[in-house]
Design a protein that fits this description.
The protein is elongated and about 100 Å long. By secondary structure, the protein is α+β, with helices and mostly antiparallel strands. Helix 1 packs across helix 4. The longest helix is centred in the middle third of the chain and has 27 residues. It is built from 32 helices and 15 strands. It holds the Pfam family Dicer_N.
Length: 754
């Protein structure tokens, strides 16, 4: 695929400038970039001369668009202008765009790239020259007449001289004594600068009495510190002297620090190309995760990777693709913080679903094993992202860098269009996969081989799926990234009724095939699909059986994830609002029936649950109030709400992290962490619990005689109530619950400026 463009000439009062006008609607859709129309050229000075048509390869066009996008963001707040604006201010005969393009596209798909000539290739110097035209630089004599004070007022400012060259200079001072004239010589004879520039550059100069301006080329300055005003050495061969009327002074936002950053532009562009490859790779492998913007993947690749991989030390660089005045280091750390909270929530919820009979201790142990650095390091390296190849040998396998990157990706997906659903799909494909398999290499029995053939053909019987499961258990096949989790999952498979195995297999294979997965070719593939089906669709968890006869043994409690997921993925989950189709829908409905049949032994719990329901100022989906009341009763039942508490704690961290990430786009990771911790403390949650309707406090005090005011029970109860709202009413209602009750309790970090 190629990008089309026209080479035209823009003639202004400053002379002719050659431009490449890119016309390509695809450029405006690059990840993270929105290309606007040309900027900053005074319309009254502009007309176009028809030029030849160019064809650019797709990689070249992408590179040009990336360079230009970076420059436009670095140069400050100059507003873009549209073609229609230019056309209305120029005579019709000078407005030749319709002759260039028969059907001009909309302004967002038009962009300029300046060329120093029709044949010279685009490079960094060219891009800097482009900046001169973009940012409305002013002539030195026109803007500054107080020459004695120029050394102080303009020290360090950027000077451009388009009539002489395409280089940029740094202003050092003014040579009031004109001693620098002796350095403008031909052979051994001095010459006036008017003669020198007129003969060498074919320039007409008028203000011959003005002193020369002392400058140093940007590339000659490098990383060296600027000399103080007036202290430059005129004999230094790197110091140049220019006539003031040839000097364009760039605006203040085009400062030295920002210009020096541009020296790293080629490296930045390379990494942004890596971003595009990364987005393409992830979108291809995990399409249900949603397209992630380059704005977020910039943090993943350029941010952390440039600092720790290439060692260029860009920690303080202000990225053009994030919030203003936020360094890329802050951006990826913020994403890491968000991803860590999202990861903890999804893993908690899915473990509760996958292992309904597991104890709290076992679930916590499994969670810690899945989110530990070693596991995430392994998962990141298994992704095969293209930009990792360059630095893979420079980072240890145990380096926390890899774990941070996985959390950044999760945070990026979470802020993308598919949100939590995209994150769940991503985890299902990275936590579970054939690459984690460890199975003895032996020939499958004929029975298993035939079963595989039938499954691949789509006509396998339930007994054949059971045969493969039994064989996998016998061989200790591992498909999870955790050996402990894999072992528990095999035990879980043994407990699944034979007639249900095919249903869960189809749930998993639908999710897998959405990523382009081929038909199963091995026992490992079948187990992978079963694992993904149960991981994404398992609809319930059990409450621990109680040894105390006074407490009821509660039936299975439905995790209504499947209910809410049915809206996004009806092909997998079926419809729970009409005729149920598919395995998950029917099983969730049967669980609802069991749960709604439960009659609590304590009327106080029921009264308290109803009091909470009526006091909630949040959107409650129609038909979910009966579920909410039952779940709230469970949340208020001592010694049986631990799993709800575990889920509520994880969701609270996730919800607060998202709210703070969205509300405070410029705060650092440390500030966001302190703010989140200020609202999720046991003291704050306890205070919120005590503000609930009085029947709730009566239930707590009756169950815990002599309870202390600062008891952890109050905070645990609040988290259990939050989990009940989440399971019964969905994430939107639970997020609203957090936003209305918990978020106002956040203590603003006074060490930062909001």
């Amino acid at each position: 695929m190629h990008a089309s463009g026209h080479c035209c000439t823009i003639v202004t009062s400053r002379g002719a400038v050659h431009w490449l006008l890119l016309v390509d609607t695809y450029l405006g859709a690059l990840p993270g970039f929105r290309i606007n129309a040309g900027r900053g050229l005074p319309a009254a000075e502009v007309y176009f001369e028809v030029g030849s048509t160019f064809a650019l390869s797709r990689p070249d066009a992408n590179l040009l668009a990336i360079h230009q996008a970076i420059l436009l963001r670095l140069l400050g707040p100059t507003p873009p202008v549209s073609w229609s604006d230019i056309g209305t201010t120029m005579p019709h005969h000078e407005y030749t765009l319709p002759h260039l393009i028969s059907n001009p596209p909309k302004p967002p798909s038009l962009m300029f790239l300046s060329l120093p000539s029709l044949i010279e290739s685009l490079n960094l110097r060219t891009l800097l020259a482009s900046a001169q035209a973009i940012c409305n630089a002013t002539r030195l004599p026109s803007a500054y007449v107080d020459y004695p004070n120029l050394s102080t007022s303009l020290h360090g400012r950027i000077i451009a001289t388009p009539e002489i060259s395409w280089s940029l200079y740094v202003f050092l001072g003014v040579d009031h004594t004109q001693t620098s004239l002796s350095h403008l010589a031909r052979g051994n004879q001095s010459t006036k600068y008017t003669d020198y520039y007129a003969s060498n550059y074919d320039i007409q100069l008028h203000n011959v009495d003005l002193p020369l301006v002392a400058v140093i080329r940007l590339e000659d300055l490098g990383d060296h510190q600027l000399p103080v005003p007036g202290s430059w050495d005129p004999s230094n061969n790197k110091v140049r002297f220019l006539p003031p009327e040839l000097c364009l002074v760039l605006p203040e936002e085009f400062d030295l620090a920002r210009i020096q950053t541009l020296r790293l532009l080629p490296d930045v562009v390379k990494h942004i190309c890596d971003i595009q490859s990364t987005v393409h790779a992830l979108t291809g492998k995990y399409p249900n995760c949603g397209r992630i913007g380059g704005e977020r993947y910039f943090a993943i690749t350029v941010g952390l990777r440039l600092d720790q991989g290439r060692g260029h030390g860009l920690a303080g660089w202000r990225t053009p693709f994030g919030p203003l005045n936020v360094s890329h280091t802050d951006i990826f750390q913020r994403l890491e913080l968000l991803g860590d909270a999202v990861l903890g929530f999804i893993v908690t919820a899915r473990l509760l679903c996958l292992f309904p009979n597991a104890s709290i201790g076992t679930l916590v142990e499994l969670k810690m094993e899945l989110v530990r650095n070693e596991t995430l390091n392994h998962l990141t390296r298994m992704l095969g992202l293209p930009q990792l190849a360059e630095i893979s040998n420079q980072l240890l396998a145990s380096s926390k860098t890899w774990a941070d990157m996985y959390e950044e990706i999760v945070g990026s997906i979470f802020t993308g269009p598919n949100g939590i659903n995209g994150c769940e799909e991503f985890l299902a494909h990275t936590f579970i996969g054939p690459e984690h398999a460890s199975v003895a290499t032996c020939t499958c029995p004929d029975l298993i081989s035939k079963a595989l053939e039938h499954i691949c053909a789509g006509d396998a019987k339930a007994d054949e799926v059971r045969d493969i499961v039994d064989y996998a258990c016998e061989q200790s096949v591992s498909v999870f990234c955790s050996s402990h989790l894999s072992a528990m999952f095999l035990e879980r498979l043994k407990a699944v009724p034979t007639e249900e195995l095919a249903d869960w297999y189809h749930v998993g294979i639908q999710a897998s095939h959405s990523s382009g997965t081929e038909c199963p070719t091995s026992v490992v593939d079948v187990i992978v699909y079963l694992a993904r089906g149960l991981w994404l669709g398992s609809p319930g968890f059990y409450v621990m059986n109680q040894s105390n006869d006074k407490l009821p043994t509660l039936p299975m409690v439905p995790v209504l994830y499947a209910y809410h997921r049915s809206v996004q993925h009806p092909a997998i989950y079926g419809s729970l609002t009409s005729d149920p189709k598919g395995p998950v829908a029917s099983k969730v409905l049967s669980l609802f029936e069991k749960f709604l049949a439960y009659n609590p032994s304590s009327s106080n719990n029921e009264a308290a649950a109803k009091a909470i329901t009526t006091s909630l100022a949040i959107p409650i989906p129609t038909g979910t109030i009966p579920f909410l009341v039952r779940l709230l009763q469970l949340a208020l039942t001592p010694q049986v709400y631990q799993k709800l508490e575990l889920l509520g704690d994880a969701f609270l961290k996730c919800s607060l992290a998202l709210h703070l990430h969205t509300r405070h786009p410029t705060l650092t990771e440390g500030a966001l962490t302190r703010m989140r911790q200020s609202a999720e403390s046991n003291h704050v949650l306890g205070v919120l619990t005590k503000k609930l309707p009085s029947p709730v406090l009566e239930v707590i005090t009756d169950a815990h005689p002599g309870i202390q005011p600062d008891s952890k029970v109050y905070g645990d109860t609040f988290e259990s109530i939050l989990a009940a709202v989440l399971l019964a009413c969905g994430e939107e209602a639970a997020s609203s619950f957090v936003r209305k009750l918990v978020l106002p309790r956040v203590t603003v970090d006074t060490s930062v400026t909001l």
